[in-house]
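Morning!

As promised:
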Amino acid sequence: MSSTYGTNLKISIFGQSHSPAIGVSIDGLPAGFPIDFDELQTFLKRRMPGTAAHSTKRKEPDIPEFLSGLNDGVTCGAPLAAIIHSTDTRSSDYEQIKDIPRPSHADYTAYIKYGEKRDVRGGGSFSGRLTAPLCIAGGICLQLLRQQKINIRAHILQIANIQDRPFDPVNVSKKEIDFLKTADFSVLDTDAGERMKSAIEEARKSGDSLGGIIECAAIGVPAGIGDPIFDGMENRISAIIFGIPAVKGVEFGNGFSAAELRGSQNNDAFVIRNDVIQTSTNRHGGILGGITSGMPLLFRAAFKPTPSISIEQGSVSLSRKEEVRLAVTGRHDPCIVPRAVPCVEAAAAIAIYDALLGCKCAI
Amino acid sequence: MSSTYGTNLKISIFGQSHSPAIGVSIDGLPAGFPIDFDELQTFLKRRMPGTAAHSTKRKEPDIPEFLSGLNDGVTCGAPLAAIIHSTDTRSSDYEQIKDIPRPSHADYTAYIKYGEKRDVRGGGSFSGRLTAPLCIAGGICLQLLRQQKINIRAHILQIANIQDRPFDPVNVSKKEIDFLKTADFSVLDTDAGERMKSAIEEARKSGDSLGGIIECAAIGVPAGIGDPIFDGMENRISAIIFGIPAVKGVEFGNGFSAAELRGSQNNDAFVIRNDVIQTSTNRHGGILGGITSGMPLLFRAAFKPTPSISIEQGSVSLSRKEEVRLAVTGRHDPCIVPRAVPCVEAAAAIAIYDALLGCKCAI
Amino acid sequence: MSSTYGTNLKISIFGQSHSPAIGVSIDGLPAGFPIDFDELQTFLKRRMPGTAAHSTKRKEPDIPEFLSGLNDGVTCGAPLAAIIHSTDTRSSDYEQIKDIPRPSHADYTAYIKYGEKRDVRGGGSFSGRLTAPLCIAGGICLQLLRQQKINIRAHILQIANIQDRPFDPVNVSKKEIDFLKTADFSVLDTDAGERMKSAIEEARKSGDSLGGIIECAAIGVPAGIGDPIFDGMENRISAIIFGIPAVKGVEFGNGFSAAELRGSQNNDAFVIRNDVIQTSTNRHGGILGGITSGMPLLFRAAFKPTPSISIEQGSVSLSRKEEVRLAVTGRHDPCIVPRAVPCVEAAAAIAIYDALLGCKCAI
Amino acid sequence: MSSTYGTNLKISIFGQSHSPAIGVSIDGLPAGFPIDFDELQTFLKRRMPGTAAHSTKRKEPDIPEFLSGLNDGVTCGAPLAAIIHSTDTRSSDYEQIKDIPRPSHADYTAYIKYGEKRDVRGGGSFSGRLTAPLCIAGGICLQLLRQQKINIRAHILQIANIQDRPFDPVNVSKKEIDFLKTADFSVLDTDAGERMKSAIEEARKSGDSLGGIIECAAIGVPAGIGDPIFDGMENRISAIIFGIPAVKGVEFGNGFSAAELRGSQNNDAFVIRNDVIQTSTNRHGGILGGITSGMPLLFRAAFKPTPSISIEQGSVSLSRKEEVRLAVTGRHDPCIVPRAVPCVEAAAAIAIYDALLGCKCAI
């Protein structure tokens, strides 16, 4: 199985890229919450394809239809189900894939797992399109969290070798987060953003693709959220972030770079600021022992370059069991990182809101 | 909550560093499996403190007592429970911590979550000592997996800035894995190992600590294990690996370095070798779409430097709510990475065995 | 939360009586299974209102729309989602309920739990209508089980004080089960069935309602399914059967009547029949120690009389906090037991199929 | 799997009748709770064998050893693990069972599931002895619930055909509950109790056994606990109650007898008493739509007669595959119902406390 996440808030995602609809059922939302549907739509638009030159040409309106869980537009306590109908599917693009798995896609492993009857069209249930229902659930959680003064925002830290300015781990601010809110392209350094766009355009022209890193911050998370050992915030967040296709690494705070540091360089001294216990630095990324410290929660997710490239590659014919050459055709993002930014925010929001619901603090 | 992992194999860990005992209950083991207890003890010894100069001086025999789940030394189908009694605890070492949280430890977040009655002795339930029951469960899973020709082995890829030779992603072999089996210090390049040991010794002398990276390989894993979206192998493995204290990052295959590559550089062409579909390279780390591809499963975990250092640091007094200076005393590892190697293997074994039990493949 | 069941097969139900749609997502179905949609429709029709004189007048076609999980009409391995659109909803019928909870309905507890914004229309998410998605999931499981020679069938054992002939616990046969398949009214004794129908009609006329008992048999279940303690077949089945509105009791084998028997009267001797170990009697209902014995699995579920009656009853006004008199109007079943028969079969099929998927047997 | 229960409070039970120890790990207890160990011991004593003439002669002190989760005798937030060492085991009593399964015991199904290596001694993991760790967990939950003014108490409603006075569904009082607290034999009508004891003694003499019914009440449970569909209080309670060996039926409120009633006879009118909304009768057993109504929560569990009887019965030899005669020897309770009373209370306490922890109410 695969498509259920959460303990106190439980989301179940369903759909394939070209199935009649994709959707999500969300169980455990508090009753009486007035979802801001315009804001949710604006949020969903950020992951939609076809809205920018640097993205795939496939056009999908991605307007959710709410089937249940609402009463006069307000959550009523019952599971909220929302679906997105598929409209612009060109299944003929994918005939070839059935026999010749695309390198570094899930085509081959889906064949092993599900056999002849797997749905290969558009990547089936492995498609990035399944992040749309994730974003519906996450978009609602973002609104619920904001009510509790918790704000989550991500930006493109890196595409290829072009780097955005990282968040200041201690002082990542509501202001910075608001800046990203209005940004057409999720970077803090618009200059770097332009260079990223050029790199993406250039990759598209050469039939290739690019990877990148997304950095995400959650500010306002109270200390004490999360649990030790297997239910720590790192476990919870990574368990959902790896649900976004193409993610191959997750790190918190200093992450991998901590490996090269000494304790004296990586430790964060406790200080008192405005009568509140904080840390003077934030190499721990707001999580100690799996539990939030009250400092900004910071993590990064690494995305591999989109495996769909039109440059010819080696593959095999499953039917003939022989090696063949393959050039992937069809509409594909040369870089899914820009569109993945809201997905990372959505996933983080779900994980944090679920942890918050399960939280009992003594202090 | 925190201490339960798994779906078809369910492990529940309990204990605090200085509680009368620590232990684990393992539910879902097949009946009739003859555990090799000597091998398990040898495995547990690899994470034991006090066995090498580069480790803490605390001596704990770590000999598990099996309470249930066995019949004539063979698993009987009932949950297997094993405990390790605490013997060498010097609780007086930890009096100070109750009021002054150690920087980058879980002391402060434990205080927030559990209040005055938290167990501060030895780090309580956040102690690295809780990896001993993890290793009991994982050690048994390693034996069960080997029966199915699946071998898992990890090595120290990096400590501070000293690097071991990485596994060859395509050809990581039973031989390499067997070499590590006999190694006193888990590195492929014994030279690099010596330099690591010197660096650890030097860190100890200066009252500081070091972090590092562990690389882990699972070979022989059949294609088709794991599930899409939230139950992929990356999700499952990261959800348990982050349960090992001090882990701050997890990456699979090329991981974070994939962010800088193009699709044409990161994709793995399918080939046919000895009549079997494989990939010519293994940048995907043996996982595509959350499901194993049949290639070696490869991941890396980043460990932050041990936060316990005797160099003076800034902290706060919780009772007086004022900033103070703190030098952590007591017996502490200057680098827990060498001892964490079997923990990573154990965690990987549990995650893979659990996934294997839940697996239905069409092909 | 509430609406998710299962471990290896996971179903998530959503919807309210009058929400735009109700539905279910089913995760864990094997890929490549050709659902017989006509048969499924016939099955769903058995719980549909308006098909018989003894039932409510509300007409709903209950034709599921399949949103995902299929490829050319065959399961593809992805979660199968199906919805039923609401068409014949008369929300004006329910205005009064918002202030005056109907006795023995969930109106009052829904008010406590979800507050002002709960969906009172048609009982909201507590409506018996939510058993339609349960029947979609269960109908598919029935087909999957039949493939493995497992057949499940229920009948009305009792309505008011009129009793049907019970299943023969030892020899409940495929034939008896097939007889029920063609029955318009699910009884073995058609005479008793006629008297039940008359009693229902008479209750309708007097504005009252009737309860009853449904007996369910699963034949062909191999020995060894289920687990001890909390995952026994009794635990699993009761945990889903109580999800059907109005069920207030569940018993297995001799059930409550075993309380009056002696061990020598209630024990089932083991015998060998056709080279197979069986029991000569079947007071244990096919389950010993939570695990199936290979004998017919037999259980009964007690349904309280429908709480919606037009006879005047006492209730309270939530807004005015005073006692009032209430006569429930609208379209209501005087007895939901006949329509609940396929729901019990569906629930049993889901529980048994889920247990089967998780089963490892040594023998 | 089998031995884990709960969502927000998670208990994991382990052990076999004759394993070195049996025990439980309890995850999710609030930190800072001072367990009354004397009271817990008194509670455990109620299920202990050998304390009364009507019980088995096996003597076990059943004194739990607490391995973790405590700090100065107070819960510290970490999982609480407690074990009971096995002392008085006479394994030789059980040699015969290995080949000849006892009728209506789990011997045969354990053989099917776990094969040759199952633990047959004393019933292995199917033994009633496993209710001791259940009672440790439940005994702690009873104390936690009482802090919130929730009291749970059960009594023997029936043994064979001898009936105790049932609880008054509306007015079951703290006083009645306190009376049971001091009772040596858990009945409201001491006269009936004496007759039950005689019947048990008489059954013992004739080598036979008796079943019975236990009725349990939880008073003070606030309205709004539990969830619709699969997580209702009926689902939750039955899912744990069926974990007690020999339970074959569970019913709530009027339960099975509701089947014979009309809606007008079974509905509970809402009334206002002391400014609180209540029901004038309590046929619903305090649960509507799976959610507590604020009225006493009432349920009954049916226990089959102990299958171990010394009267000769028919069985089979597994090795010779032939029918044989069997008279069960050894120390066995002729009626486990009296000892099961605290087990029912414990199970109910765990289910209710777990539901309470997960509860969000709007009103």
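Helices of chain D lie at 37-47, 107-114, 131-147, 174-182, 190-205, 233-241, 263-266, 337-357.

Hope this helps with the figure draft.
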